[in-house]
Amino acid sequence: MDASPALGLQTASVTIIEYGDFGCSTCWYWHKQGVLKELRAKYGDQIRFVWRDFPVITLLSPKAAEAGQCANEQGKFWEFHDLVFEHEEAIEASDLLAYAGEIGLDTGKFTECVTSRRFRDRVNAEQHEGFENGFNGTPAFLVNNQALIGPQNLSVFASLIDPLLAAMK
User: Fold this and answer.
1) What is the C-alpha to C-alpha distance for residues 62 and 119, in angstroms, rounded to an integer?
2) What is the mean pLDDT of each run of 10 residues along the chain (169 residues)?
3) CB of 100 within 8 A of CB of 110?
4) Is residue 14 included in any domain, yes or no?
5) Is there a domain that residue 1 lies in?
6) CA-to-CA distance for 26 and 83, rounded, in angstroms?
7) Around Cβ 119, how many Cβ atoms within 10 Å?
8) 106 and 74 Cβ atoms separated by less than 8 Å
9) How far, in Å, CA of 96 to CA of 90, rounded?
């Protein structure tokens, strides 16, 4: 899934994939703890962080996931992601459209994208991939294919990342 939203270089030594859900209160908590920012500050270009949709928590989650992909289509996934997580529990269609406008998306294109459901198959495939990895809730992570379940802190991630980086020296 090459077009997944990602932060960091494709050549990074460590890839962290988050299987997340915009309707997940634990994901909101993890986001607000700033662990992703801490990871990026500590490891810089040594890590790549990839988002995968795993919309399993609420009935609104699949549509929110598709909306995130529509924001990604306009190059603003992370801005959309951050805004959604700053407004926990507000993922109705009107909320998603408001976020799109707030981050400067072309709301006409965004609305057409969401309405057409052109990313439904992609979101479904990512959800299926999460299940294949043994996940049944969010957030869940793969750190170079090592599973990490739940909203972990920097030290837990470091306990996986540091040995990986040391082995590559």
Assistant:
1) 10
2) 84 97 94 96 97 96 97 97 91 96 97 97 97 96 96 96 93
3) yes
4) yes
5) no
6) 16
7) 23
8) yes
9) 8
pTM of the model: 0.94
Nearest in space to 49 (alpha carbons), one of 131, 133, 142, 132 = 142
**CATH number for the domain harbouring residue 127:** 3.40.30.10
pLDDT of residue 86: 92
Cα–Cα–Cα angle for 59, 60, 66, rounded to 5 degrees: 125
Query: How many CB atoms neighbour CB 19 within 10 A?
Result: 27
The answer as to whether 42 is a domain residue is: yes
Q: Which domain covers residue 69, as residue numbers? A: 6-167
Token representation of residue 137: 């809730």
CA-wise closest residue to 117 among 71, 67, 56 = 67
